[in-house]
Amino acid sequence: MAFTLNRRHLIGAGAALGAASVLPGLSLARATDTVRVGWGKGSITQISLQRGEFEKNLKDKGIKVEWVGPFPNHAPSLQAVVGGSADFGFWGSTTPALAAIIAGSPLVFTQFLVYGPRSTAIIVKKDSGIDNVQDLAGKRIAVNRSGLGEFLAVAALEQNNVPRDSVEFVYLNPPDAAPAFGQGKVDAWSMWSPGVDIARDKFDAKDIFFEGTDLDYLIDYSSLVSLRSFAEENGELVREVIDAFKIEGDWMSENPEESEKMIQKEAGYNDAVRDHLAALKRRNVFYEADDPAFLSDFQRAADWLVERKILPQPISVADHVVRVPGV
């Protein structure tokens, strides 16, 4: 299936977004010359840290980079931003960011990233007796709360007419979910790359639902998040940071084998997993935070999550993005 922005329009009807709801453009100000950036293994932030070009590009602009992490998933990254120990998260999932905003955190989206092909999957052990999504009824599945794992599990159950209350969701972050799956404490795990690929290889597991082929829409995206106050006081710095990340994302798109070798060095998985991931030849596509077409899709995604009670209440996503100058 071709990966395009248009495929997300299959999510369903959602509220139309007006440009008036988007925050005014940031001023070209810079209140600091140091930026603290969260990072996580297997992400664009890890590549940015290891290559060193991200820091060099920002150094040329008079900006010093400090790395904070690694974070296992987006929720603790967001906590670091809210708590004041990081200025940006690590390009994590939009869903926990929306959940944090609904809970009152003063966060804003500064940029979005969509990569394809997607490789999040629900896996089970080959000897589990579970051969498809329907077989999950009466079973336990590990997911990360309000994150990509939970969303994919909900979508898979719905698509296969399996009542959600017939499956027990066990809410675990990836470092805890991996051993729980390996030890048989849960029957299935909904997880993204490279964690799902490592587990598939390590625990002799198989896919029963694969996002890239079994789902025709996206509900969760990668996002760069900061505090609203930080963005408003540092418009110039925010622009320089997202431009530097775009250079990294473009490099990854053009160098999938080298990218995976760098990620493998940090994550420690074997060559078979590395080669599998490199063969996906992922492409990174960036969207400005106030892109009207993207925000329309994002709003539909948020509405989908609210309707399925993954998010606790409706949210207007356009009220929580910033228009960054320079493009």
Automatic annotation (TrEMBL):
> Which controlled-vocabulary keywords does the entry list?
Signal, Transport
Outline the extent of the Solute-binding protein family 3/N-terminal domain. 34-255
Q: Name one GO cellular component term.
A: membrane
**Which SUPFAM superfamilies does the annotation name?**
Periplasmic binding protein-like II
Q: Which GO terms describe its molecular function?
A: ATPase-coupled transmembrane transporter activity
- What main location does UniProt list? periplasm
Keyword set includes Signal? yes
Q: Name one Pfam family in it.
A: NMT1
The source's superkingdom equals: Bacteria
Q: Which family does it belong to?
A: Belongs to the bacterial solute-binding protein SsuA/TauA family.
Listed PANTHER family:
ALIPHATIC SULFONATES-BINDING PROTEIN-RELATED
**Protein's name in the database:** Aliphatic sulfonate ABC transporter substrate-binding protein
